[in-house]
Amino acid sequence: MSQKVITPEITRPPVPPFTEETARAKVQAAEDSWNSRDPKKVALAYTVDTIWRNRNQFINGRVEVEAFLTAKWRKELDYKLKKELWSYTKNRIAVKFFYEWHDTQGQWYRSYGNELWQFALNGQMQRREASINDLLIEAADRQLV
């Protein structure tokens, strides 16, 4: 997939090509953004025509990303996420992550997964592939408080 050149006023640093330091910063920025649980803010990190696979859902474009995240955080209450850099190349980053949340009945979950990211030259994410599994947990077993 070719990289798109986007105007500098919407650059999302750090930008590719990544070093270990800038890849770690990108992962931390993503963690911080997702932990805001603000769909509009999070969606701005993605290109207008971003392509996602999230579990068994296929999401196309920033508008669909925002709608997906709005629905996600209506269901996944008190969501808290931790991401860790797995590897990186010029414009790609792989992460492992887990997050905890509860449903409207108070059942807690820990969701584990891996993501593959591909970035445009301006640092916005063009592609996101996420594989995620959920584990029921007791509130007392939470790790992200």
Produce the secondary structure layout.
Elements: H1 20-35, H2 39-43, E1 46-54, E2 57-60, H3 62-75, E3 77-88, E4 92-102, E5 108-119, E6 125-137
Parallel strand pairs: 1-6
Antiparallel strand pairs: 1-2, 3-4, 4-5, 5-6
Protein name: Nuclear transport factor 2 family protein
Organism: Rubellicoccus peritrichatus
Pfam families: DUF1348 (PF07080)
Overview of the molecule:
The chain is of the alpha+beta class and 145 residues long. It has a single domain (15-141), classed as Nuclear Transport Factor 2, Chain: A. It has helices at residues 20-35, 39-43, 62-75, and strands spanning 46-54, 57-60, 77-88, 92-102, 108-119, 125-137. The protein has a six-stranded mixed β-sheet, with helices on one face. A hairpin with a 5-residue loop joins β5 and β6 (125-137). The protein is globular, with a radius of gyration of 15 Å.
CATH architecture identity? Roll
Average pLDDT metric: 95
Q: What is the share of helical residues?
A: 10-25%
Portion in beta strands = 35-45%
Low-confidence stretches: none
Number of domains: 1
CATH topology-level name: Nuclear Transport Factor 2, Chain: A
Q: Under the CATH scheme, which class?
A: Alpha Beta
How many beta-strand runs?
6
> SS-based structural class?
alpha+beta
- Report the end-to-end length measured between terminal Cα atoms: 39 Å
Please summarize the sheet with the most strands: 6 strands, mixed
Question: What best-fitting shape do the alpha-carbon axes yield?
Answer: globular
The number of helical elements comes to 3
